[in-house]
Amino acid sequence: MASLASRLIAPTLALRARVNPASTGRCVRSFRLSVRAHDVKGDSAVSMENVDPEIVAFQAHQSTAAKLSFADECRTLVDLGRYGVISTFSREHDGEYPSGSIVGFASDEMGRPIFALSSMSGHTGDLKANGKCSLTVTAPGFQGAADARVTITGTVELIADGADAKEAREAYLAKHPDAFWVDFGDFTWHRMDGILGARLVGGFARAGGVTGAEYADGSVDPVAGFSAPIASHMNADHVDALVAVVGHYVGLTVENAQIASLDAVGMNMVVTRGGESFKIRLPFTEPAVDRKGVKEALVGMTKTAAKASSEKAEAKAEK
């Protein structure tokens, strides 16, 4: 498996030109095309028609802002997930049409989803007849199109009794500790093997696909698991500091800034400027691989931004 550092990449969604899809996956949608498709107003901060120097500089910054690779983000979303929508070939329609069901799952060290399936569930019978399926998993706190989701495609197979079934049970109960019912007689263990690939939609202007091999080679982000409490604390107690950090490191003047999520390379934020709210990417000055590293990064960036703001205010007062 490649090291974390080797997979810390700049985003592939160029603002003014297409990029090579091979750099992070098989399918990349450009920022320009997304903006046009959604018919953004010309004075919007995310419009390519906006010629405000600050906005032009902001867009240039975002075009190179470091993000997780598609493979790592896919693996991370699956690792964080507990429930998803599994789409099977429905026997009720002669196996020719898909049917979606909400299922609980866990994942193993290779990112393969594990399921405890009841013989009474329709999707279990569907999978027995045809194991080919897909699983769609949304990011924690998913609310709509601006939030991340991933769909992985593969074949779900029954796990034979033995060491594999024991490991599957342990992994599932670690994610669903109250699932006592997995030991009922009508439940059996299944796993998605032979993953063909994954399709990621990371929110506005970020989408792409990876092959099964690329997905397997990806890694779970070490920071995303404790993103929520850090974001909650910063959003509740340090909004002014976040506004200053956005101004200093992104060069964007905003009225409000909130952290949506964090990973080892930086933060996804929602900012408000002139009454318009939109997402931005703010990389850390150095990658953070644990909670202590995230705290150090945030404290360091906050102090640097505060110092710069103070020096700017003093220089302005002297004029």
Show the helix and strand layout.
Blueprint: H1 31-37, H2 53-64, H3 70-80, E1 83-89, E2 98-104, E3 106-107, E4 113-118, H4 122-129, E5 132-138, E6 149-158, H5 163-175, E7 187-203, E8 206-211, H6 212-217, H7 227-237, H8 239-250, E9 256-262, E10 266-273, E11 276-283, H9 291-318
Antiparallel strand pairs: 1-2, 1-5, 3-4, 4-7, 5-6, 6-7, 7-8, 9-10, 10-11
Helix pairs in contact: 8-9
Overall description:
This protein is an alpha+beta fold and 319 residues long. Among the domains are: 118 residues, Pnp Oxidase, Chain A, CATH 2.30.110; 95 residues, Split barrel-like (Alpha-Beta Barrel). It is built from 9 helices and 11 strands. Strands 1, 2, 3, 4, 5, 6, 7 and 8 form an 8-stranded antiparallel β-sheet that branches. It has a 3-stranded antiparallel β-sheet with strand order 9-10-11. Helix 8 packs across helix 9. It starts with 30 loop residues before the first helix and ends with a helix. The N terminus is likely disordered.
Protein traits:
319 residues; alpha+beta; Pnp Oxidase, Chain A; Split barrel-like; eight-stranded antiparallel β-sheet; 9 helices; 27% strand; disordered N terminus
Low-confidence parts? 1-37
Output the CATH topology of the domain at 72-84 and 103-122 and 133-217. Answer: Pnp Oxidase, Chain A
- What coarse outline follows from CA principal-axis ratios? elongated
Name the CATH homologous superfamily of the domain at 72-84 and 103-122 and 133-217.
Electron Transport, Fmn-binding Protein, Chain A
The biggest sheet, with number of strands, parallel, antiparallel or mixed sense and barrel status, is: 8 strands, antiparallel
Q: Report how far the terminal alpha carbons are from each other.
A: 56 Å
DSSP strand count:
11
Based on helices, strands and strand pairing, what is the structural class? alpha+beta
CATH class call of the domain at 72-84 and 103-122 and 133-217: Mainly Beta
Question: How many alpha or pi helices?
Answer: 9
What is the share of helical residues? 25-40%
Measured by DSSP, the beta-strand proportion falls in 25-35%
For the record, the CATH architecture of the domain at 72-84 and 103-122 and 133-217 stands as Roll
